[in-house]
Amino acid sequence: MTFVTQDLSTFGQSSAYTQGVVAAVESVVQKEVSGALPALSCVMREDDLEDFGHLARHLAGFEHLVLLGTGGSSLGAKSLLELVRPPLGYKGKSFHFVENVDPHTLASLRAYPQPSKTGYLVISKSGTTAETLAQFLCVLDALRLSVGDGHVRDHVLVITQNDDTPLRALANKYDIPVCDHPKDIGGRFSVFSCVGMIPALLMGVDVSGVRNGARSVLERLRVEKATHAAATGAAACVALAQEGKGVHVMMPYSDRLAVFSKWWVQLWAESLGKEGQGTFPVAALGTVDQHSQLQLFLEGAPLGAYTLLLTNPQGRGDAFNVADLSLDPRLSYFSSRTVGDLLAAEQEATLMCLRSAKRPVRTLCMDDVTPQTLGALMMHAFLEVILAAELMGIDAFSQPAVEEGKILTRQFMQEGYAA
């Protein structure tokens, strides 16, 4: 297990830092052990992975795979698939995510990838998500024209809860296999369930490794209690919010964690943005955002707290050609160094700059991005947000404001709406 350290040395130093965290941890641990938090306790299972593998085989033979879904139905799986993201120019099996209802994007589903060579994974917990239904209806139309009504089922797998819903009705009409989405696990907390595991299995991710990493973090919470990294992190985040640090920036230094940051943004925003509380989550990426956002982070209004996700890239990657470096003495700092050495130096420089500017910053460090470390990182994020909600006195698992928007969307569609 290589998810190793959390440095909170300049991240949340007020008297509120540990206030209430002992009771919050006890509450979460009791709920998890009793089975009241299935989004967490599902990582203790192994038997369901075989069932997920059997379902995944329905789509395993396709050259192209497309996931239709949005938010929690896609971002977790998308994060996991970064573990096996193919190199530039790769011509083999592909996995695409259709998350929006932009007409330009949906029109491309009819042309590329070719429907007859494509498998579609349709995910909506409620079975009523307007965006996912629209995506699926477009796909159904293209499939009927391409392979005929009788073969639609061969190209589609649906994940939705076992209720009388429009998505379930469409699946039944075409005799499409359906995997039951757990009713007691919400979308943004579903990555360790079938919602994340089936897409990951389709692309060869080590899902046992992902769950093992998550399990190790959860098991440590039971032992370490209030000293656990997620507990101290949650307490610090709440304390900083009370001090007016209303922005929380998540900045990994690995391309494979860029999607994780977007997954984390949904988790943080939808879980904690209630009753006038919460902080504004921002996804950043090192080194890219050193050239776009770091100026604001260092000299803008001091409203933020910063989490840097650091790996250990030193000595990794290509070395620089000596002959090229000799052309100009200004290239000498590359001498005897690798690309990984540059990334390591960039990480350290940003950390030092934020500390010098007296910005609240912490580091979460891992040796490398692996199934185990990503699973651990995701479980850490789950625990941190659930504990922060306990400290804030809110329900991490609801999203009442979002439901209002869904109702209005359907109303506008029925009545006609012109902007």
Would you kindly provide a written description of the structure presented here, covering whatever features stand out?
Helix content is about 45%, strand content about 15%. The protein has about 425 residues and is an alpha/beta fold. It has 2 domains: about 5-35 and about 210-390, Rossmann fold (3-Layer(aba) Sandwich), CATH 3.40.50; about 40-205, Glucose-6-phosphate isomerase like protein, domain 1 (Rossmann fold). The strands form 2 sheets. Strands 1-10-9-7-8 form a 5-stranded mixed β-sheet, sandwiched between helices.
Short descriptors:
419 residues; alpha/beta; Rossmann fold; 5-stranded mixed sheet; 5-stranded parallel sheet; 10 strands; 45% helix; 13% strand
Write a short abstract of this structure.
The protein is an alpha/beta fold and 419 residues long.
In total, how many domains does the architecture comprise? 2
What is the name of the CATH topology of the largest domain? Rossmann fold
What is the ordering of alpha helices and beta strands?
Answer: EHHHEHEHEHEHEHHHEHEHEHHEHH
> Which structural class should the secondary elements be placed in?
alpha/beta
Let me know the largest β-sheet: 5 strands, mixed
Mean pLDDT: 92
- How are the strands ordered across the major sheet? 1-10-9-7-8
Stretches where pLDDT is under 50 for at least 5 consecutive residues are none
Approximate shape: globular
CATH class of the largest domain: Alpha Beta
Strand segment count: 10
Percent strand equals: 5-15%
N- to C-terminal separation?
A: 52 Å
The CATH homology group name of the largest domain: Glucose-6-phosphate isomerase like protein, domain 1
